Amino acid sequence: MEENFLQAEPQTEVVMLISIGPVQEFIAQARKTRDLWFGSHLLSEISKEAARRLAEAHNARMIFPYIHKEKIAYGLDDLKVANKVLAIVPTNDPKAVALDVRRAVVTKWLGYANKAKEELGSGIIGPMWERQVKDFIEFYAVWSELESEEKYAEVLQQTEQLMAARKTLRDFRPNEPADLFGDDKSGLDSGRESVLKPSQYMSYAGFGIKHKETLDAISLVKRLSRFTVDKKEFKSVCDVAFQQFRDELGASRNQWMKTAVDEYYRDLKHKYGTALKLTGSDLQSYKSEMFYTSRVEEAVVELAAEMKKPINRVKQLEITQNILTSLEELYGKILKEPTPYYALVVGDGDRMGDALRKMKTPAEHQSFTEHLSGFASEVERIVFKDDIKGQMIYSGGDDLMALLPVHRCLAAAQEIRQAFTNTMTLALPDEDQRPTLSVGIAIVHMFEPLEDSLLIARAAEALAKVRRDELAIHFQKRSGSEEMRVSLPFSENPVNTIVKLQSLYRNRYISTSFAYGLRQLHAEYLDLKAHGSLQNEGMGELLYFEIRRLLLLKKPEFKSKDEIIKEVLSVFKGLEQTDSDRVKDPLVLLNRLAEQCVIAVTLEKVGGAYGTNDTNSTS
């Protein structure tokens, strides 16, 4: 039974702010997408436990997250919580409250850690595991007395300043040395040693641990979440990239290709079903790794380890070679391969601090955070929709991260942004300037390390936040031969423009050379302007006719001049209105249009609306 900290004597109220970590580095340290998801899920669950403890044991009025008392009785499974917890607590001993919440948080964390340890049994270095687990949680709590609700905004600001000051202080904990000098460092966190025993790697394969992979205790808690957390199968980057191929084969015109793919997979199950755990009875549930030549060998090792009687390494290599031969025959027949690229999407609210500082009362703040919780749920609904089929990593408040198929990422980003706009309209109906959402999209190869992919996505998000309310896209081929980085205002409907340009490219009205010709045109005119050879007046109309000339120069022979002008030039009409307040510099608009054209062509090549003929090689 939980302790009850309610006291008989008159109590003061305090605004208590709790921050739990580590955050970004903990989430980012991942090799598999489930590791990435579980990092954010774990922090959310731990923060949720802090909120639950405050509400139940200390009768706190929860601000962030906002929790109805009656909702606690029904469970908080669907609640999305960031790593910050804010509440008004009636107490004469706030330190005791904070320590009690900390105990609850640590207990919650140890529950996850102990389950992972039980799965691994004697396959870990025990003392090192205990040391790493014990030192993991970062817990900060600050509070300020709330004399009256009229002073809420002032007291909240003071409390946030206290938290900022507290985080500047370092905790110096006594160091417990490792067992041996020169212990292997974790491959995901070089600040911690690996707790895996070199002699036990055969037994690790069933947990998705590669041969000679070195992992610390915290990384193992994430890796083993598939066995310790009741959650359905989680999509890998391979699954997300493969979704475009699934969608394409689902089209009626491609029924013959689907038939060939079905025959290939049925043949795999018939030949190797006793050696490999090959699940899947239809196109939507096939093991995606079996369709990528670069992933087959690793998949065979993992799927063999999941069987009761694992096969030896020689047999695994034999099966791998046979599958690769069958896969080569399949692609030789259908002349189509799935894209190896997927989209990592991150988003963050703009000017959220300004909006929060305008909250005068706890009730206003509670209403606002309740709307944010609704937005988080809506983002999850969008990502998992049947016409998108992405994978949610996290969605808490105004912060989000998801994996999306390349051919659906733009539509999803636009829908998420619209959902945020709708949420802010409901949450702040009387405000003229409401928070907006900046979104960053990284188009990355499935072989790109997840940590690196996340850095690319974060860089795109930072680019979008320079001017705010923008969509930034960053694409770099795995070979490093081509890079694309651009940020576009949502107010100019960039997604609609890119989708239109994709259609034009797909139907061969525009070409790759036209897209890059636009880039070159912008560079030439930018140089002319820099040398004083060009004036803004009339430049928009001049550029419009330059584009018309370039378009006709690059047109395919089988398209008529009238067809090209009718279908394509409407996209560039805006250049003639660049004297408006919206865009004063026509070169700025030309640059945006050129980059959108390059984006459209690139997306089509790596898995656009209907797929690609590109191979899945790592180059």
Automatic annotation (TrEMBL):
Keyword Cytoplasm assigned: no
GGDEF domain mapped to chain residues: 340-476
Residues in coiled coil: none
GO molecular function: nucleotide binding
Pfam families, sorted: Cas10-Cmr2_palm2, Cmr2_N
Biological processes annotated in GO: defense response to virus
Keywords for this protein: Antiviral defense, Nucleotide-binding
Protein name as catalogued: GGDEF domain-containing protein
